[in-house]
Amino acid sequence: MKARVHVMLKNGVLDPQGEAVRHALGAIGFDGVEGVRQGKVIELDLAEGTSEETVKEMCEKLLANTVIESYTVELS
Amino acid sequence: MKAAVLQFPGSNCDRDMAVALEQAGADVTVVWHKDAELPKVDLVAVPGGFSFGDYLRCGAIAAQSPVCKGLIDHVHAGGYALGVCNGFQVLTETRLLPGALMRNAGLKFVCKSVGLKVETTDSAFTSAYTQGQIIDIPVAHHDGNYFCDDETLARLQGEGQIAFTYTDNPNGARADIAGVLSDNRRVLGMMPHPERAVDADHGGTDGQALFRSLLDQLVSA
């Protein structure tokens, strides 16, 4: 089974990289980009039967820093 | 004073830290990241560098290493710890210090000498400075933009846990914060490198007083 973890900076935490991407999009002619937030996607190959709780524990302990980041878990 | 300097794959200020501590008079042991047991020491120093290549987040993987379990036990037992640059990132990732260090607001690696204001002399790290003193210390980082939430910031300010602020903020850090102390004031994390400012031949000696403070306080303790 696979899990896909999305890690994003929390709302309210300034994302300097997202801002730079927004500026760059404007500079190459894409108007109307009002905001960009950049995060990461982590794909995990897991033993069958691994619970969502276990993946969340991985997020809490290592994959995300919950001081500044939020995460969502998709199992498939 | 006995001190341990931790060493991770990718640490690059470990030797400088050991030299700065030794010059101040400390007895220093360098400890490899796989050692779960720390020698009995007064101070654990977590040096700068790029532990584990800064993969995932700066300091995140080092924070899970066996030696950091020893570090956490040491701090929970009332021991002293100093984290500089990547070491500061490790201390926030272990949650021994509040907040987090994010990508510099200007997105560029910043490598220069900066002015710091000594915000408190009430710690074993800063007692040899004077309150409000402006010192020159080098910074060299890509992720030194200190962030904490409003509640944490109010607590840091209220309890005098901000050790140093930048006179000219190089990285977007919240409230110009360059270094913070733990609740019990025995853990200091800072982005600037005091260990790179202990020798006149290297451009300045404003970092010496930090190591002198530690030696004064921890020898007499």
UniProtKB/TrEMBL annotation, chain A:
Pathway field: Purine metabolism; IMP biosynthesis via de novo pathway; 5-amino-1-(5-phospho-D-ribosyl)imidazole from N(2)-formyl-N(1)-(5-phospho-D-ribosyl)glycinamide: step 1/2
InterPro entries noted in UniProt: PurS (IPR003850), PurS-like_sf (IPR036604)
Enzyme class: ligase
SUPFAM superfamilies: PurS-like
Catalytic activity field: N(2)-formyl-N(1)-(5-phospho-beta-D-ribosyl)glycinamide + L-glutamine + ATP + H2O = 2-formamido-N(1)-(5-O-phospho-beta-D-ribosyl)acetamidine + L-glutamate + ADP + phosphate + H(+)
Keywords assigned: ATP-binding, Cytoplasm, Ligase, Nucleotide-binding, Purine biosynthesis
EC number: 6.3.5.3
Family annotation (NCBIfam families): phosphoribosylformylglycinamidine synthase subunit PurS (TIGR00302), PRK05974.1 (NF004630)
Function recorded in the entry: Part of the phosphoribosylformylglycinamidine synthase complex involved in the purines biosynthetic pathway. Catalyzes the ATP-dependent conversion of formylglycinamide ribonucleotide (FGAR) and glutamine to yield formylglycinamidine ribonucleotide (FGAM) and glutamate. The FGAM synthase complex is composed of three subunits. PurQ produces an ammonia molecule by converting glutamine to glutamate. PurL transfers the ammonia molecule to FGAR to form FGAM in an ATP-dependent manner.
Subunit structure: Part of the FGAM synthase complex composed of 1 PurL, 1 PurQ and 2 PurS subunits.
Protein name, per record: Phosphoribosylformylglycinamidine synthase subunit PurS
Annotated source species: Marivivens niveibacter
Biological classification of the source: Bacteria, Pseudomonadati, Pseudomonadota, Alphaproteobacteria, Rhodobacterales
Gene field: purS
TrEMBL record, chain B:
Chain's gene name: purQ
Active site: 85 (nucleophile), 193, 195
Localization: Cytoplasm
Domain of life assignment: Bacteria
GO molecular function, one term: glutaminase activity
Entry-linked InterPro entries: Class_I_gatase-like, PRibForGlyAmidine_synth_PurQ
Keywords for the protein's UniProt record, in alphabetical order: ATP-binding, Cytoplasm, Glutamine amidotransferase, Hydrolase, Ligase, Nucleotide-binding, Purine biosynthesis
Any one cellular-component term (Gene Ontology): cytoplasm
Catalytic activities: L-glutamine + H2O = L-glutamate + NH4(+); N(2)-formyl-N(1)-(5-phospho-beta-D-ribosyl)glycinamide + L-glutamine + ATP + H2O = 2-formamido-N(1)-(5-O-phospho-beta-D-ribosyl)acetamidine + L-glutamate + ADP + phosphate + H(+)
Record text on subunit structure and interactions: Part of the FGAM synthase complex composed of 1 PurL, 1 PurQ and 2 PurS subunits.
Role this protein plays: Part of the phosphoribosylformylglycinamidine synthase complex involved in the purines biosynthetic pathway. Catalyzes the ATP-dependent conversion of formylglycinamide ribonucleotide (FGAR) and glutamine to yield formylglycinamidine ribonucleotide (FGAM) and glutamate. The FGAM synthase complex is composed of three subunits. PurQ produces an ammonia molecule by converting glutamine to glutamate. PurL transfers the ammonia molecule to FGAR to form FGAM in an ATP-dependent manner.
Full protein name: Phosphoribosylformylglycinamidine synthase subunit PurQ
Pathway assignment: Purine metabolism; IMP biosynthesis via de novo pathway; 5-amino-1-(5-phospho-D-ribosyl)imidazole from N(2)-formyl-N(1)-(5-phospho-D-ribosyl)glycinamide: step 1/2
One annotated GO biological process: 'de novo' IMP biosynthetic process
EC number: 6.3.5.3, 3.5.1.2
